[in-house]
């Protein structure tokens, strides 16, 4: 797939970032070390009452993991982003995000005065602060994705975080099918059993990409996806 | 599938302070006071009861599927499950369950998701998020509180069976419920409950036959008298 890199930046570990990813562009995220985790939420930037609906995403595609070919459905039956490429085969939609209490209990409190930008941040506060910048708030919070992480579910329903899943250099690529407000943060996965507070950076690469063709891997992933693309295309007609 | 654990409630319908039957396709909104018990009965069997929960004093603090399943380390809800909110408060605890497990990942059907899942021309069919919205709008009109689409988030599907496999597949299986099965929750804080009794006609798990459910409420005192017996 031909594409043109528009810009690239590094997002340090344990921090939050947002961008309106325009339709026709793609965001490539590259892990800057082992233990990377990128929590993410997605909204329609032109009408943020439309946002990622993970239950719809999972049940439409009969999946409990995200990988190449899968799309992220909004609550309006449209596609916010497609996963056009990934090296891991499994990104977690189940584990949710860390909060201040969880981080303090797990890693201890570390103040800004003592640690400066290495102080202990958490994903929930990151999402809420970033939402606020767009006039949004706690009402707009939704279930989040955790890229680079894997949570397995056993037959009895029990959940296990899989250690060592993300490797330095792992990548995932998200193609925007709408003008999508993406809020990311690089805090550790809330189920990560590693007791060390790690700050793993990621590289963010923004590219201009062609519109998905009739044989696009995400369009062909499921008949449901084909209908999701149709509804998204109608939205822009 | 592992054997479901069945836990019966000591409370009897004659002691309930409130009882209502919710027709298939109908919505229901009600405030449950802290300490009260609320029971949902699957009257005819294999009906999905799509339910949202909110802190009654702060609707932005609402049931969180991910925080709930992570807190208990299991994706299926049953007796003992604490329903955790987005602000990490415990809204309710499941205290009795004769079905054995309930789904929190399958979400609620909508006109839009029916178009994606089944066919574009399914838009006009009634769906849970239409019921949620109708309930939210009526509740907002009645109470003057701002409550609408932004507040429709993760829901529980009581009596529904949506297994996840170790290879990361999500499957829809026949219901595990039967006529008369129930789930009962105790409110740990004043809680707003919003129900859509699912009207889904595209999915075989209810045999294409949506049916009514019954909701009963007991006061906290009922539990104390039971404990003393």
UniProtKB/TrEMBL annotation, chain A:
Name the source's superkingdom.
Bacteria
Question: How far does the signal peptide extend, from start to end residue?
Answer: none
Specify one Pfam family: DUF1989
Tell me where in this chain the DUF1989 domain is found: 9-181
Alphabetized InterPro entries for the sequence = DUF1989 (IPR018959), UAAP1 (IPR017792)
Q: Which NCBIfam families match?
A: urea_degr_2 (TIGR03425)
- What is the name attached to this protein's record? DUF1989 domain-containing protein
UniProtKB/TrEMBL annotation, chain B:
For the DUF1989 domain, which residue ranges apply?
Answer: 22-192
Highest taxon of source: Bacteria
**Name of the protein in its database record:** DUF1989 domain-containing protein
Q: Which organism is it from?
A: Tunturiibacter lichenicola
